Amino acid sequence: MAAGPLVLDTFLPYRLSIASNLVSGAIARIYQSLFGLSIPEWRIVTVVAETDAITQQEIGQRTRMDKVTVSRAAIALERRGLIERRAHPGDGRSQLLHLSATGRTLYESVAPKAKELEERLFGDFTAAELDTLTSMLRRAEAAALRLEGEAR
Predict the structure, then answer these.
(1) What is the structure's pLDDT at 1?
(2) Mean pLDDT, to the nearest integer, of 100-104?
(3) Of 25, 65, 94, 98, which residue is least crowded by CB atoms under 10 Å?
(4) CA–CA–CA angle 149, 53, 137 (5° rounding)
(5) Which SUPFAM superfamilies has this protein been placed in (predicted)?
(6) Euclidean distance between CA atoms 77 and 38, whole angstroms
(7) What's the count of helices (H) and strands (E) in the chain, helices before strands?
(8) Is the backbone of residue 2 left (phi > 0), alpha (psi -120 to 50) or beta?
């Protein structure tokens, strides 16, 4: 990294945050207008679809969303009949979230749109650039987790 004064516009954590906010904001508006889903709700629907049964705590760990965000989104999805709660056979204190039939139908409608949005956002990148970007993001995530661990 270059020495010198901090210039916000070239500070990588800032650039990453700006890019993330712009991408998330664009996608959030589309999901909301087409499917009535917030980003946390969409993430929960997707994670539940991928796992078939998962606790709210596990969702928070996988998505890095806080407990309150996960709880509120799960409640909203349950009220809409998109997810169902069932007793956790291995832990009487928690419940497993499952997609309802309506939730599965919604997921099957939204998933292709998500892939289309990904293509629109990243279609100008080569496969090699996307592989590099993904690798770099994973490395940045791992470094952030190490810093988080040091702060504890």
Answers:
(1) 67
(2) 97
(3) 25
(4) 40
(5) Winged helix' DNA-binding domain
(6) 10
(7) 6, 2
(8) beta
